[in-house]
TrEMBL record:
This is Ig-like domain-containing protein. It comes from Pygocentrus nattereri. Transmembrane segments: none annotated. Residues 82-172, 179-263 form the Ig-like domain. Keywords: Disulfide bond, Membrane, Transmembrane, Transmembrane helix. Pfam families: C2-set_2, Ig_3, V-set. SUPFAM superfamilies: Immunoglobulin (SSF48726). It comes from the Eukaryota.
Length: 267
């Protein structure tokens, strides 16, 4: 006689004279002895179409005369292989911690273990959700995002009893930030009559900069100046170039500026 513990469901009975019987139970139709007729010295059973609800303690009980009943107990553990996924979150650079990556191990049993590896100084948080005797483990990676963190590496590692080795998800962080601007090309040697003096407006941002705008503090661009995108060319240096040039760069996130003050020397 074999029963499942807990609610004590009688699942299968073998009698040397009356044979095998299968009482009503959640396992009826899915449980059988591995040999037929069954052997009293090895009454092994097998369960087909295994379900998570089949997990539990099983008791094999022998009725003997005149010694009474003897029993053996075994625990059945059902493993459910989880479905693992990971992704990054596009965020803007800021001063407060935000979620920059997700990692999830869904519908596993027992619960999976999630750990993080990163080249930045964030930290992971983990929570679990129970569903139909399986467990979904969710973890988030938190970080105070800076422009320097964009494209840096972060990885999620999922360990589970059904996996021969941990499953790793390498990712690149996606941090958006306004353009960082620098004007280069001024060498403090702009003298009267010098030709083709060039200023270049270098900008780095995520998403990439889309608009470059040049202006001066005086409000009027000298007639000898030629502007093309991020380049300002002074065709011939004269007194009107003795001003401060400003480059303003925009992307979808915001605006960045830089400026350089030109002091025109004599010939």
């Amino acid at each position: 006689m074999i029963r499942s513990a807990g609610v004590q469901n009688l699942i299968v009975v073998f009698h040397p004279v009356h044979g095998v019987s299968y009482p009503e139970s959640p396992l009826k139709g899915r449980v059988n002895f591995t040999t037929y007729p069954p052997r009293l010295d090895s009454p092994t059973i097998q369960i087909s179409d295994i379900k998570m609800t089949d997990e539990g303690r099983y008791i094999c009980e022998f009725a003997t005369y005149p010694s009474g009943n003897k029993q053996g107990v075994t625990n059945l553990i059902i493993l459910a292989k989880p479905s693992n996924t990971a992704s990054t979150v596009t965020v803007q650079a800021g001063t407060a911690p935000v979620i920059v990556a997700h990692c999830q191990s869904a519908n596993g049993h027992p619960p999976a273990n999630i750990s993080w590896g990163a080249s930045v100084g964030g930290n992971g948080t983990t929570r679990t959700e129970n569903q139909d005797r399986t467990v979904t483990v969710k973890s988030e990676y938190w970080l105070v995002p800076t422009p320097a963190d964009n494209s840096r590496d972060v990885s999620c590692e999922v360990s589970h009893r059904t996996l021969s080795s941990p499953e790793t998800f390498p990712m690149k962080l996606r941090i958006e930030y306004p353009p960082q601007v620098q004007i280069v090309g001024y060498d403090s040697n702009w003298y009267l009559g010098r030709t083709n003096a060039v200023l270049t407006c270098q900008a780095q941002g995520n998403p990439p900069p889309t608009t470059f705008t040049w202006r001066t503090t005086s409000g009027q661009m000298p007639e000898t100046v030629q502007v093309k995108q991020n380049t300002l060319t002074v065709l011939k240096v004269d007194e009107t170039v003795n001003t401060t040039f400003i480059c303003e760069v925009r992307n979808r996130v915001g605006t960045g500026t830089d400026q350089v003050s030109v002091m025109v020397r004599g010939e």
